Amino acid sequence: MQTEPPAALNPDEEFAWRALTYLxxxxxxxxxxxxxxxxxxxxxxxxxxxxxSEAEHRTLRIGNLAVSCDLSPSRMSRLVDEMAGHxxxxxxxxxxxxxxxxxxxxxxGLKSLKKVYPAQLANVRKRVFDLLSPDDVxxxxxxxxxxxxxxxxxPGSGVxx
Length: 161
What we know:
Blueprint: H1 11-38, H2 43-54, E1 59-61, H3 62-69, H4 73-85, E2 89-94, E3 97-105, H5 107-127, H6 134-152
Antiparallel strand pairs: 1-3, 2-3
């Protein structure tokens, strides 16, 4: 069965696509550099600290943490080991599943997160929200949410993107 090729992007779509592509490929790196200049916490460590701080008992399975942070389980395990070496987290076997490991935020990790948060907040404001009007923020969130939801829905699931 032959299908027609997709329609070319119109100028507005091309402009939006190129801006989005730039953001996807550059924003994390720039925020990483900003954070590195001001703190001793990497952006990946910061994201782990945030997720653990929001979790029940400040504890997550390393596999779930990996999914939340968009890292492979092996990379997350190594990162948790590094963070444990800094005293930010502890790592221990899961009591109900001996194959799984748990990461728990330590008081030192929470204190470090609270110390780093203002720098990260300032960087996010400087790099994103200070460039937008207040009226831009909600529509941007709505649009990005639609894209996120489309990525999280399996193809053919019937969810409109």
